[in-house]
Amino acid sequence: MTTPPPPPLDPALERALKAIGACLAAAEAHVLKPPSPPPPGCWRWVDEIPKWGPILTPIIVAVLGALLAYYLTGYFQQTLDLRKLELEVQKLALEQRKTDLSGIGQMRELIAQLYKDGITPQEAQAIALSLAAFGDLAAPPLIHAIETGSPNRRTGAEVGLAAAALAAPDPVCGTLARVIDNRTALFTWQTHESAIRLLGQLGCQNQRLSVEAFGRLLDGGVAAYRPTVHEDGVPEVDDVIVRRLLDEQQRALQRVAAAPTIAP
């Protein structure tokens, strides 16, 4: 009995089977294909490394040695330079220390002369101007000279403070401001008067707040101002003195407000 032929495949299914067969054949051919050799000359230098090793090794070692020597030379040279600089700074500091000690001795002699009995206005001014050569260092002893109550010494000290402010304006102005800022009865009203007058004459614009605060203190009258004053002089604080200080404060405030700012 003859077997009937199989029914024909669907055209779409037949095309799909052919495509699958072609993909499998291409994959098999790719797997079985031997790898292609590298292009001529590619990576050939790797094979030459053993041959050039004896030649390159001394060169590389020499270059690395030179770089290390250069680094170490620079490092040690920098260390020596820093040490020399440190020695120079120490030498300058020692010389400055000797100068400071010498200056302190000179200041001590001038201060002793300023406090001698019967000093004249001319002598007081000459000594105070000599002290002013030390700049802001002269401010504390000159303020103390005002505090002693001697009219001649006070006049000379004010001249000295004005001169010291030419060399060190901001430190001197700051010292004067601390006088009027004090509220613990450390200074007399005469010292306050000298300080507020100098603040105005010197145009201590950076101390304007201190000048204004002193004015507010005086606005409180004798009751507010007296506790802040060392009453060791004559006359004692009264309404006339407060008014006198307030007038001085107003003049100082006008001068300070009109003055340029002093650079620190």
General description of the model:
There is one protein chain. The chain folds into two domains: 66-167, no CATH class; 169-264, no CATH class. It has 264 residues and is mostly helical. The longest helix is centred in the first third of the chain and has 71 residues, at 44-114. The protein has ten helices and no strands. Helix 7 packs parallel to helix 10.
Task: State the separation between the terminal residues, measured CA to CA.
Answer: 126 Å
SSE run: HHHHHHHHHH
Helix content: over 70%
DSSP, total strands: 0
Structural class based on helices, strands and sheet pairing: mainly alpha
The largest pleated sheet is described as: none
- Uncertain stretches of 5 or more adjacent residues: none
- Tell me the quaternary state: single chain
Shape: elongated
**Overall pLDDT:** 81
- How many helices? The count is 10
Computed CA radius of gyration, to the nearest angstrom: 47 Å
In total, how many domains does the architecture comprise?
A: 2
- Strand-residue proportion: under 5%
